[in-house]
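Thread: Amino acid adenylation domain-containing protein, structure

OP (GT): Posting the sequence first so everyone is looking at the same thing. Length is 112 residues per the record. Can we get the structure tokens written out before standup tomorrow? I want them in the notebook alongside the other entries.
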Amino acid sequence: MHEVESAMLGIVRDAWEKRLGKRGLGVEVNFFDFGGTSRIIAEVRADLMAGLGREIPLVAFYRHQNIRALARHLAGGADASPEAGRARRPAPGGRQRALRGAARARRTEGEA
């Protein structure tokens, strides 16, 4: 990790710890697992924008849900892709696939 990413890691960690009221947060732990909410994200975002002097899209906090991923994103690092640190959604289950298939079948029946 280079100096910019390392400095950004400290800035992001400080902002999260301040707003979550917790110390010693792990850099890989999901923000929401530590009690983060959308209101707290708005507060962290405001703190970081004021401290960094730049606009940060709200979606960045949902795409980069741990300290390391958000710090790398803000520093423009190699791991700044939208997928870094993002919570993974499970693939749809069999019931969901069946419902989607049935919905598609009804749409195509009406078009014939």
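GT: Both are above now. Quick notes for whoever picks this up: The mean pLDDT is 80. The two ends are 59 Å apart (CA to CA).
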